[in-house]
């Protein structure tokens, strides 16, 4: 079958393309942003790409048009497809019908941590010899690709609550029919498509309704939004976890910034000692251990595998160091994710400094409010508290629709704002000193600020990188 994918360079749709190619289909696609790294992955997979959505692509005559949610009514190619009555479907529906059917699906949902948790879970299952397939909204460092069919029964999928397509406004994850559903957390986000938290809770309940009675729902203890979801009706055993002391079958006993024990029903089952920090990552790990255990992985083994987890690109990813200053990249863009990421970074910095008998450096946070929700300012009032752990904050203001100085003014002298990237870089380089960490947070490329910062820091220090 020949499949032509509209919006192929999105993280999810690019994964769909690679899975379809691996199944033996002829795959082509188009997008308005055909550039690396996704374009490189697709080209290497032998997938032909077209720039834009021109109607001349009708001449390709595929058997099926697979439509990403970046495509809306008025798109010239989509209008032509509709007018000619051609066969089309959404990416999530195609995956559900052609990739997931017959597999033991482990779906990871939640407002935060989906990519990290999915990557950890795929890693644990792989190390356990289960050879899982997966499609993840990032690139797990231990695999080097964002999607693979795998050879075993298990398939890990990052289960996004964003809408499926212009013609299917349900969340993507309703198409996945998981055996194990991880509900990591649930807060308000995606203000461009959801009017309130209750609307998102409804979508999560649609997901819960699809989990079989012999499956498993894994979720944190005492999360009000998720408890409301489950009280609407749940026909599946629920296993709760907690790293904060709440009563739950799965618990963590934190022994340091990057070390913790995993307990099941009060009994220590294993220890995780890794290069990651933050209570959010401990919770992610507990969810992974519980989910992996549900498909037969020994808990002690899962803890051992997590201790070797190599990480995920764009999740506290060290991009380089110059003049004794480390530059990190992270995908955080929601106030809660920003807060937990900064808390974890500060804890890790303190732990490393203590091990060397040194004083910890400073944490400088750079933030690009790039998501639709952040541009609209829907959650802006929660941002000042999110930057509590940062010694300095620089906010890139290009394209946002709210008054940054007014909203973030309580940060006082810690705050610097500009709608010019070069000004942000100059300000940060002038402030930075050896031992500091610079953490750039955005759900986009942030204008390539990481490489520019490393170059500027090196120039200021008189070194070559």
TrEMBL record:
<keyword id="KW-0460">Magnesium</keyword>
<dbReference type="InterPro" id="IPR005757">
    <property type="entry name" value="Mpl"/>
</dbReference>
<feature type="domain" description="Mur ligase N-terminal catalytic">
    <location>
        <begin position="2"/>
        <end position="100"/>
    </location>
</feature>
<dbReference type="Pfam" id="PF01225">
    <property type="entry name" value="Mur_ligase"/>
</dbReference>
<keyword id="KW-0436">Ligase</keyword>
<comment type="similarity">
    <text>Belongs to the MurCDEF family. Mpl subfamily.</text>
</comment>
<dbReference type="GO" id="GO:0106418">
    <property type="term" value="F:UDP-N-acetylmuramate-L-alanyl-gamma-D-glutamyl-meso-2,6-diaminoheptanedioate ligase activity"/>
</dbReference>
<comment type="function">
    <text>Reutilizes the intact tripeptide L-alanyl-gamma-D-glutamyl-meso-diaminopimelate by linking it to UDP-N-acetylmuramate.</text>
</comment>
<keyword id="KW-0132">Cell division</keyword>
<dbReference type="Pfam" id="PF08245">
    <property type="entry name" value="Mur_ligase_M"/>
</dbReference>
<dbReference type="InterPro" id="IPR013221">
    <property type="entry name" value="Mur_ligase_cen"/>
</dbReference>
<keyword id="KW-0961">Cell wall biogenesis/degradation</keyword>
<feature type="domain" description="Mur ligase central">
    <location>
        <begin position="108"/>
        <end position="292"/>
    </location>
</feature>
<dbReference type="InterPro" id="IPR036615">
    <property type="entry name" value="Mur_ligase_C_dom_sf"/>
</dbReference>
<dbReference type="InterPro" id="IPR004101">
    <property type="entry name" value="Mur_ligase_C"/>
</dbReference>
<keyword id="KW-0133">Cell shape</keyword>
<feature type="binding site">
    <location>
        <begin position="110"/>
        <end position="116"/>
    </location>
    <ligand>
        <name>ATP</name>
    </ligand>
</feature>
<dbReference type="InterPro" id="IPR050061">
    <property type="entry name" value="MurCDEF_pg_biosynth"/>
</dbReference>
<dbReference type="InterPro" id="IPR036565">
    <property type="entry name" value="Mur-like_cat_sf"/>
</dbReference>
<keyword id="KW-0131">Cell cycle</keyword>
<protein>
    <recommendedName>
        <fullName>UDP-N-acetylmuramate--L-alanyl-gamma-D-glutamyl-meso-2,6-diaminoheptandioate ligase</fullName>
        <ecNumber>6.3.2.45</ecNumber>
    </recommendedName>
</protein>
<keyword id="KW-0573">Peptidoglycan synthesis</keyword>
<keyword id="KW-0067">ATP-binding</keyword>
<dbReference type="Pfam" id="PF02875">
    <property type="entry name" value="Mur_ligase_C"/>
</dbReference>
<feature type="domain" description="Mur ligase C-terminal">
    <location>
        <begin position="314"/>
        <end position="444"/>
    </location>
</feature>
<dbReference type="InterPro" id="IPR000713">
    <property type="entry name" value="Mur_ligase_N"/>
</dbReference>
<comment type="pathway">
    <text>Cell wall biogenesis; peptidoglycan recycling.</text>
</comment>
<keyword id="KW-0547">Nucleotide-binding</keyword>
């Amino acid at each position: 079958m020949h499949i032509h994918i509209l919006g192929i360079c999105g993280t999810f749709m690019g994964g769909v393309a690679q899975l379809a190619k691996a199944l033996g289909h002829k795959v082509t696609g188009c997008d308005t942003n055909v550039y690396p790294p996704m374009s490189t992955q697709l080209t290497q997979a032998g997938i032909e790409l077209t720039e834009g959505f021109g109607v001349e692509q009708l001449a390709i005559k595929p058997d099926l048009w697979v439509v990403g949610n970046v495509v809306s009514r008025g798109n010239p190619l989509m209008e032509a497809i509709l007018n000619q009555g051609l066969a089309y479907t959404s990416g999530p529906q195609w995956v559900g019908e052609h990739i997931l059917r017959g597999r033991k699906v482990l779906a990871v949902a939640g407002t935060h941590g989906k990519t990290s948790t999915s990557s950890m879970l795929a890693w644990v299952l792989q190390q356990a010899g289960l050879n899982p397939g997966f499609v993840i909204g990032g690139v797990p460092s231990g695999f080097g690709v964002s999607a693979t069919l795998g050879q075993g029964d298990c398939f890990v999928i990052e289960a996004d609550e964003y809408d499926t397509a212009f013609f299917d406004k349900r969340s993507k994850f309703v198409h996945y029919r998981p055996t194990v559903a991880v509900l990591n957390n649930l807060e308000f986000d995606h203000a461009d498509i959801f009017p309130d938290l209750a609307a998102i809770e409804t979508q999560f309940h649609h997901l819960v309704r699809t989990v079989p009675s012999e499956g498993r729902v894994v979720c944190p203890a005492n999360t009000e939004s998720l408890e409301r979801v489950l009280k609407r009706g749940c026909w599946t055993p629920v296993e709760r976890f907690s790293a904060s002391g709440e009563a739950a079958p799965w618990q963590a006993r934190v022994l340091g910034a990057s070390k913790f024990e995993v307990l099941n029903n009060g009994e220590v089952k294993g220890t995780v000692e890794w290069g990651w920090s933050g209570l959010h990552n401990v919770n992610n790990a507990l969810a992974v251990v519980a989910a992996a255990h549900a498909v037969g992985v020994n808990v002690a083994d899962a803890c051992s595998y997590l201790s070797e987890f190599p990480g995920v690109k764009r999740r506290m990813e060290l991009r380089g160091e110059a003049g004794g200053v480390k530059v990190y990249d992270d995908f955080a863009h929601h106030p809660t994710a920003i807060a937990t990421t900064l808390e974890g970074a500060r804890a890790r910095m303190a732990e490393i400094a203590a091990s060397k008998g040194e004083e910890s450096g400073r944490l400088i946070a750079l933030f690009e409010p790039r998501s639709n929700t952040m541009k609209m300012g829907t959650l802006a009032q929660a941002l000042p508290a999110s930057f509590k752990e940062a010694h300095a904050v620089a906010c890139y203001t290009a394209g946002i629709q709210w008054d940054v100085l007014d909203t973030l003014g309580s940060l006082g002298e810690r705050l610097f704002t500009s709608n010019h990237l070069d000004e942000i870089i100059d300000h940060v380089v002038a402030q930075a000193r050896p031992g500091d960490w610079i953490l750039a947070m955005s759900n986009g490329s942030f204008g390539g600020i990481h490489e520019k910062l490393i170059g500027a820091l090196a120039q200021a220090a008189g070194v070559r990188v």
